[in-house]
Amino acid sequence: MLKKKKEAEDVANEIKKFETLIKKDLQAKESASKTSFDTADRITTDLLNTYSDDDYIKKIQKRLEEDAFAREQREKRRRRLLMDQLIAHEAQEEAYREEQLIHRLMRQSQQERRIAVQLMHVRHEKEVLWQNRIFREKQYEERRLKDFQDALDREAALAKQAKIDFEEQILREKEFHDQIATERAKVSYKKHYDICAEILDQILDLSTKVSDYRMLTNNLIPRKLMHDWKELFFNGKPLYEQISTKHLPARHPAGQLVELEKRDLLDKNDYEEYKNMVGEWALPEEMVDKLPPSNNSILGHVLHRLVEKSLPPQMEPTETELPSFAIKGCLLGKTLSGKTATLKSLQKDFPIQVLSIDTLVQEAIQAFYDNEKAVEAQPIQREDGEKSPPIPQNDNKENQASLSVRAQLGEKSEQLLKKGKSIPDKLLVNIMVNAINEIPVNQGWILDGFPMTFNQAQLLEEALTGYNRNLIEKEAKKTQISTLAVDPTASKEVTSPTSAFDFVILLDISDTFSLSRKNDIIAEEFSHGTTPKDIGQHGAAENQDKDLNQNLKDQIQHRIIGFLDNWPLLEQWFSEPENVLIKVNAEIDKESLYQKLKEIFATEIVKKKNKETPRGKQEALHEGKGKKGETAPKRKGTADKVTPKGKSPGGKTPIKKSPADSTDISPTPTAPPLPKPGSEEWVYVNEPIPEEVPSFLIPYWELIENSYISTIKTVLRHLREDQHAILAYLYKIRTSFQEFLRRPDHKQNFVAQWQADFNSLPDDLWDDEETKAELHQRVNDLRDRLWDICDARKQEAEQERLDIINENWLQDCLGVMMNHFFSLMQAEVNRFQDTKRLLQDYYRAMDCKIPLEDNKKFTRIPLVQLDSKEISENQLRIPLVPRVSISPETVVPKSKLKAVLKEQMDESLENVESNLEADEKLMMDTWQQASLAISHMVTADIHQQLLEEEKENQPADAKEKSPIMGANKKAKKEKEPPKKKKADKKAKGKSPPVPEPPPVTMTAEEIAEMERKNELRLKIKEEHLAALQFEETATQFRLELIKTKALTILEDLVAKAVNVYKLMEKWLGEKYLNEMASVEKLTEVARYHIETTTKIQNELFLCQEDFFINGDIKVFPDPPPPVRPPPVEKEENSTLTIQQLDNLRDQFLDMAPKEFGEKEVSILTAHYEPVLEAASVKIDDVDTEWGMLKLEIYARFQNIRKLTWDFVNSIYSHKYPNVLMLVDLVLALPASSAEAERGFRQVKRTKSHMHTKINAESMTDVLIIQLNSPDINNFDPRKAIHLWNMRTPSSVGDTGPNSDCSSNSESQDESDE
């Protein structure tokens, strides 16, 4: 093929060369015929004028047009020349005929012939001279045209090389961009792949975890476990423990950090369920009606007020110094997305000012170089000069103070740029804000490509609006310090600040589109390149544009990457508070993009006007309402002060008034019911408190809250872990008991020994009756012995079950559970005690009283003592209670579950029932103890307040009495101590019965002040008692919930344990019954063989509860088969007998190869091994399948010659696919042409030799013999002759010619080859 291609190319090249030669000859003839001296002079003058003329380029264009026209003319001339060649060829033939005629005419005269030759020679010389002259003129013209064409080619080559360089640069940039995009795509793909792989691993872990616990819990997974697993799964945490967290080092490894995060997540969820009383801590039906309010509003108000006092005074956010502009926005997008060009066009149609950060930085630096002065500096200097003499200062400081803000910012930027540093975001934002401040009020502004980063957006919004979103969120979190109590009046939503922009437009283009725009710009610049004269005219402006384009070339990739990295954060920033982002597809022409942005601008201006008009109306309405309602709060305050005046405060003695004052007071009208403390209508007491109180109580409350939450989380974590341990332990004892029941027994040894003895009995004793009786007795003995083994195993299993029940795991687990719930009760009691102290200190401080020193110890709830060690009381920080079984006299109400358990209890589980009742009794006693402790604390606090009131309610004028009256009163009190209580009771409503001194006159202001103080104290007391009662109710409810939950969990744990114990008893009984039944089956089989007097040949297998007769194992061998009788046949008429046929078969088998086809199959398999492996053929199975296929074909089919491989494939393709695939491969291989031709020759020879009288079957046999028989020289005919002689004479005579034909044809075939 390659040679043919080369020959075709050579022929094509020769044809092209021949055509070029013909063209040159035709051009030479044409130019020679049409050229003259005049035309040559004209061409030379034109060329000289062309080189000297200034219109060089025009001439070149004209010359190109002339060349095109010349090409057309040349094409016409070429066609005309071809016609001329035809005519010339005809003329040449005519001349040749003439020559022949002349030659004939001149044969007679040799002289005439010689003269004719000379004449023809002269004629030929003239033609040669004429052609040489034409060729020289053509050379001159070609030289001139070549010089001109060389000049054009040089310029075209330079332009072409520049274009090639530009295209190569574009390709390099595209490859670089594609490489960056590929890397980003790989990073994104790897990130998403890792996320998906992690999710799949978590799904797999969840499924395996569920399957594990289905096995542990017998397909009864608790709801709490599934809830915890789903929480871990949804939060992306591993379900299986990575590393233990029991011993935490100083530096946590990564695995322990993950485990700590998992633990904190589950602890938080458990605490939320406990706090909100949902999920596992959902209220039972009997407690739903008793549910107290979820929040203590009074405590929340107290904490909120303390936090406000402790925090520094919050300054209201400064209003923006910027006036309300017509429109504020920014235009963002990638490099070359059309921002600047579009904004320049929009600036002509709208009253907006476009601010570009690059331009502003350059203007600021230029202002610094121009030494731009501040506007306000001159009057300040004049005033200073008038007031005081000039103070000598440094020139630099004076210049810096007098510079404008823009110049100062430009100075900082210039210093950073000189050092090679970039301008920080804060300085850029200051430059931008300074430019915005200088814009007139009625003119809008648009930022061109700014902000570019998330940090710039944050700083710009803070500078324009005065708000910082992060600080607002942090302050909101600080004010909400308490999670246990919330002030409903202070829970106000944090108002999100408005955005600094009215709209943000994104011109969205792809990376490739941006690169194509950059290439278009550079190509346009290249196509409109300027000459050296033009460069001198344009000057520095042109150089500056080139520098900008060069920077654009170098930085385009980095700018695109920077935008892609920063845009996700910017998109989120401009979309979250209020969506001001508008996306526009900028991959369109400039005019369409301009129209789109023009419509958006018009729409945003209308929106801005619509927003400002209702705002102005609302402000006007608010001002009007404020003027009208100025007196309303005063009236409300006076009414609030007047209504409680008429009420006589309980527990306080009214102050006496003068008769004149008493006549002025009018009776109080009936008022509506007063609001309850803590309700929405209740007005809280907000009297001033000392500054030291918040600084002490706030950390104290944080300590209370943190200790309470950490204790609850720790206890709930232990409960969660104990649940896993309980499930694992119950599964462990179930599996261990099942393994104990499946321990090996030795019954099979006795069975085997009995079977051996039974089979060894002599044959003559089988029918003896005494022997049968003896054998039955042996069977009975074997049965009794096996039953004894079963009974012993049953007793051992029962003892193992009792050991498991009595190992005190259940008691220890119940004790640990009870201690966890006692710890929860202790946490609730501690929280109540600490909250009570905090409220007491707060209200005493507000009442201008000194906090009391509480010398009472905290209430400690006792825990259950799990071990029997004796510990002294001095070593105990928490009291311990020993576990004592309940006495039968105590009566405890039993639940339905306990009644069910009681029905299921047997003697071994009575101790479990009694211990459960004792534990429940202990739980009830502890709950009552905690509940009574809280009630006593509240009662003691109320009693203490009453005592203080009694002391304060003594007559105020006792201090003004004389010392004599004071001494008499003191002596009278000492003499009459029993009457003190009665006097105190009367003091609540009336003054004490002491002889009154002369009345002291008090002014109305003093009386009003005394009444106000009494009302304030009464309100403080009422609010304090309401807060305490709420805390008491909530704590009592929590304690009752803990008690109910504890009893439920204890009963559930006991029920689980009892179910396991009962399941063990069930397994034990079933095991014993099955073993007894298997022994009975063995006995029946043995008695059957005894009665039938037959030996048991197959092994009797008895293991635990399984009995069967093993047919694979025989105890003694089978008896030999009976001897075959001799044959009865006789040989008749040369018919072979069966014995003769067997001998003949043996001889054939001896003569036949033992392994027919094995070698050939192995050779083919080794040769075609790669092909077979590609077809998924098992090569190791080919030999085996070949042997099995042969055996099956020989056994199934009698006439194998009629079989075809298609038929074999249809039957055995599913059974022997590997060897049949090899056969198909061999059959698919084409035979060689020589082999096929040899076969056809043999057919022709055979038919011609047989005179076409042979049938098709005989022809097939003959061809097989001829084609596959060995060489005649190596053939041993003795065996064939021996077989031939054994046949009948008639058959021998018939087949004689065939053998001759075979030998002859074979010899002929060999000779041909």
Task: Provide a brief overview of the structure.
The chain is mainly alpha-helical and 1313 residues long. The strands form three sheets. It has a five-stranded parallel sheet, with helices on both faces.
Description:
One of its GO terms (biological process) is sperm axoneme assembly. The protein is mostly helical. It is built from 42 helices and nine strands. The strands form three sheets. A five-stranded parallel beta sheet has the order 2-3-1-4-5, sandwiched between helices. A two-stranded parallel sheet has the order 6-7. A hairpin with a 2-residue loop joins strand 8 and strand 9 (1106-1114). The longest helix has 108 residues, at 110-217. The two termini are 32 Å apart. Residues 317-323, 377-398, 530-540, 619-669, 885-904, 956-997 and 1288-1313 have low confidence and may be disordered.
- Class from secondary-structure proportions: mainly alpha
Q: List the strand order in the largest sheet.
A: 2-3-1-4-5
Overall morphology: flat
Helix content: 55-70%
Question: Alpha-carbon distance between the termini?
Answer: 32 Å
Compute the gyration radius: what is it? 60 Å
Could you tell me the strand content as a percent range? under 5%
Quaternary form = single chain
Low-pLDDT parts are: 317-323, 377-398, 530-540, 619-669, 885-904, 956-997, 1288-1313
Mean pLDDT across the residues is 75
- Counted by DSSP, the helix tally is 42
Largest sheet, described in full? 5 strands, parallel
Number of strands: 9
GO biological process, one term: sperm axoneme assembly
Domain CPC1/SPEF2: 105-238
Region (Disordered): 376-399, 609-679, 950-1002, 1287-1313
Protein name: Sperm flagellar protein 2
